[in-house]
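S1.2 Input.
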Amino acid sequence: MPKEKSQPKAREHTQRCQQGILFHRDKGQHILKNPLVITGIIEKAALRPTDVVLEVGPGTGNLTVKLLEQCKKVIACEVDTRLVAELQKRVQGTNVAPKLQVMIGDVLKTDLPFFDVCVANLPYQISSPFVFKLLLHRPFFRCAVLMFQREFAQRLVAKPGDKMYCRLSANTQLLARVDHLMKVGRNNFRPPPQVESSVVRIEPRNPPPSIDFQEWDGLLRICFVRKNKTLGSLFRTKTVLEVLEKNYRIHCALNSQEVPAEFDIKEQVSSILTTSGKGECRPKNMDIEDFLRVLETFNTNGIHFT
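S1.3 Output.
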């Protein structure tokens, strides 16, 4: 009887490497394997012999061992204990082993240590929360060189008027200078991800702008709901007006101020936008200074966004 053809097995979201480690795609485990890309990342980080480097997602240590050769200390944060064991085995007995410190756990739930430079090939699903955890970290670090999904990287560096310009762009660029360094194709990873990647350099602004970031983000949430509309149109919606009036009354109560009997939130907002000169502006075309001007004018008139 003729042999029956075996049916192809369904593709699993894992891939086994030469050492026998099973990588989990759904956890964002894509190991950077191209030595040229690794060298490029280290060069762009401009490491000094005295630097302490925070590496997030070291995987099997392809980037880690190169970092250890360039700096004073590497603090590697990894959630997968199997990869931690592989990393420790890789440097065991070498002259750089004493320079490696491993933190086991979720970096988003961990207090970040002191460091000078951050280098990371992140699981892409934690990109946004990690960026803001990093930018709000104190004391200040010098720079971060991070691998992101290409689309996320484009949003980080987008300028006013660009198609990709969004709340993420404005929030990040308020707190840091952001530069796109290089594109990285999916075949530079094992297993290859389904998307293309990019490396971005982030340098925090020091000193940071003297504003309440929660207030700033509250303003931008309203502005970028419909970034093609004018501010005048966005701030006339019933939901926005209700929130602003509630915040205004809370502000008055906390500061022992009486709310005027004839107070009309709609008229007040319209007057503020006219004063700021931004009522007819559209968020998609506004830069950081434009948003700061709007925020300052609202706050000066007792209207807040938190």
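S1.4 Remarks. Residues 81 and 174 are 36 Å apart (CA to CA).
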